[in-house]
């Protein structure tokens, strides 16, 4: 409606509105971009996690950018495989088809903190005899530590920190610490410099091959950090936006439109119909909203669509109805409504084409202001454990963090990131909504 | 009441201007208005909607809205230049002491939660420092004058009919016995008989108390009930200022003539005329005579701003009446 | 009884064939509204219309004059089919309004009778363009052909002088002046090609110079299309320009019915006389004297005075007669009736020049 657009131009006058509008637009654009770049099904799969996707991530580490604020940087993960710089390999063939592959992984480690782990991945193919490897660790100060000798099988994952034997060798320190620690010092200090891992891999069959990959798990990862399942938190942070917005908008839209319609019907017909709607509203206002949602979530289904549906259903007959009804009672006395009756318009037509369009400007600020309420509702439900278990949302993230005692363990980023985003969303919509209220409401005083 | 000299005019306005700022620009509602008013006389300001007459009332009483811009000119009331007074002095000494107002749709300007007796008593309590009983007594007297029975004093506005409410508003304007009452469309929403009643009251009050009136209206027929002088306003300016006798028989300005020709009459056989076009916007008034686009007697000189010419004591803003024309 | 909606041209032709016939016949109409207190206790009735009889001929314009609270709005709304008839009859072209079924009633409202209201801005939905506003009654009446609708809209806009049509089609009500808004309201009533148009104070909210235009417009429509008009107003001075008959209404009843000229020059009922004297002409002499106004206020319609409703304010009232018996209509001259006991042969007629 052109009239609406004219009113929207007035937004220019309110800095709060412009700010809110910027935030909301940014969120919406962000959400759209996210949905396009990481389609829904892919996101779900990624979120489900598993070794295959997240095995190479460190667990519970903060995002990369915390290093910008630290004096001593935390180590970042890296991977080394044959063919990379710093990796040398030599193959010696002996008679009888045995190949001895000598691999040297060389890297610089100049961080003050210990890595989370070092994992070696062995992949080989053979018919009967599995390859055999022998690994040695060389520190910058030229100490050699034997990491182990063992057969690899078709695949083998060797995280050094899990090896108890190695631990015993290293004064009962987990290998990710022990391998780097300065033996002389009493505190856990890292020996910085160039490290080397020498691997001797012997294959016993002429066609048998073996590949080795080394992954050093750092103490930071990605733009958002990781969670207890090693999942990169950028996924729920990003995907949380479209989910929150969709839920918020659909719930706000659904309730606003239905509330307005019922209010109009009640106000227009009056009598029994109006009375019925009012009584239903009054009963509904007394019902414990959250408790019902919890019951539905616990006993029936936690799917987000179910929760959305129940939320809308319970939110229709609320105080909003009384508010709109009061306005409709006034509007229905308008002269043009009388004219419509005089030229024979039916009730339905009057309600939907003459009454409701009058109120739509009032609806809009209410709608915008209601969105954050629903966004927070979804997050709260997730926090309480009845959120949708499948979806990567902000609420779920906070829930995971809470369940893993994130705050006690210093994993602040896990809670702060989704919380800040929730607050920004709420702030943006609220500022926009309040300003729109000021723009649209004076107009309606001329009803 | 303010003491006035017998020789000085009660009210003299010179080049009064009031402009409002709105998003689209500046509304030049009152754009250089001059006129005078004697003691115990009445003038009616005629004009259609959008000519700035309500703004003129506000300008005289200094009831300026928040978006008022230019407010200039000279206003002599009782020989004193009240434009020089600051707002507080004006409020204390002039507004509702010397001059008061019955606003348009007075029905809506009464406080719905206060009894009307109290509302009418309030101005004397505030401006003359009367105690509550004395003020109430004054209110009762005023109600008698305007014809509202005593037992209505304790009622609330919604309990009264339209005519009664208008009379209450009139009593409120009257209670401090001002020299001048400005009436802005006092009877526009009222029935015929009630309207006649109110004008009877106004006439009687004028005779009894010597009050002067500025009556602002677009209803030419009823304006003749009270008018001794007529000032016609168009697009923020006065275009004719005349005495009632001559105005109602033979107005000079083409606009006044067309207005008079458009008044429906009970008797007679003449056809009604109407004025084509619409009045100019006060946002960007045109240069030259503001009526030129709708005037049947337009000629080239009209592209210049006409000043107020005087012809036999009647002031006309029209080149047709230029001396030696 | 649903026909294809007519277009204006047809009305013009048809109207000419039936001049002189009664299009509306109202017999002793009573419209009472129930007063309820506390939602269920019946405390009485508002006798808004309490015994009204008149006929409206095709192509004729009548004016119903009265002050606020006299019941003219309720009368008009009943004729429009918006209020229920409590007692009495309204015949539209020999069809009884009460006996119309829902469908017929809708047909009546959407194609036979049009309504022009007082407040031009309020009468137009602010969120619709002029084109849509004018299209709505056609859609409701069953005009399904979109092109034919547009044609009808254009024709009607030309009739009310909203030209060039294209300039106005897409404007919103707040973008046009008061006079133009009222013309849209008239166009909306006209577009139904009705036989009757009821106009409730159509010009009272317009500027003086614009009133004339609108009145002239309605007169032209009446003459061109033989549409019957019921013009409701409290302003007697406009009546002369626009109606053949004047009915004066007071407290739910007609006090006097006469041809326009007769009523204005030779009023019979004391109330009519009071109204006429209260109407001002723009003459300087008015400021020199006082007007005579009957004391008091119009009576409450819940407990109206016994007998003649005007008697408490009437200086000619005859005790024992006017305060106890309802006066019938006395025939004074051709087409002139007064509901006043003073015109009974037993009593003396009032002399207003005293």
The tally of structural domains of chain B comes to 2
Largest interface, by Cβ-Cβ below 8 angstroms: which chains and how many residues each?
B-C, 47 and 40 residues
Q: Spell the H/E element sequence of chain B.
A: EEEHEEHEHHHHEHEHEEHHEE
What is the CA–CA distance across the termini of chain C? Answer: 57 Å
The count of strands of chain C amounts to: 12
The whole-number mean of residue pLDDT values of chain B reads: 84
N-C termini distance of chain B? 45 Å
Strand order of the largest sheet of chain C: 6-7-8-3-9-10-12-11
> Under the CATH scheme, which architecture of the largest domain in chain B would be assigned?
3-Layer(aba) Sandwich
Query: Main β-sheet of chain B, in a few words?
Result: 8 strands, mixed
CATH class of the domain at 8-250 in chain C: Alpha Beta
What global shape of chain B is seen? globular
What is the number of E strands of chain B? 12
Q: Work out the helicity level of chain B.
A: 25-40%
Detail the poorly predicted runs of chain B. Answer: none
Helix- and strand-based class of chain C?
A: alpha/beta
Order of helices and strands of chain C: HEEEHEEHEHHHHEHEHEEHHEE
Number of helices of chain B: 10
**Which CATH class of the largest domain in chain B applies here?**
Alpha Beta
DSSP helix fraction of chain C: 25-40%
**What oligomerization state is this entry in?**
heterotrimer
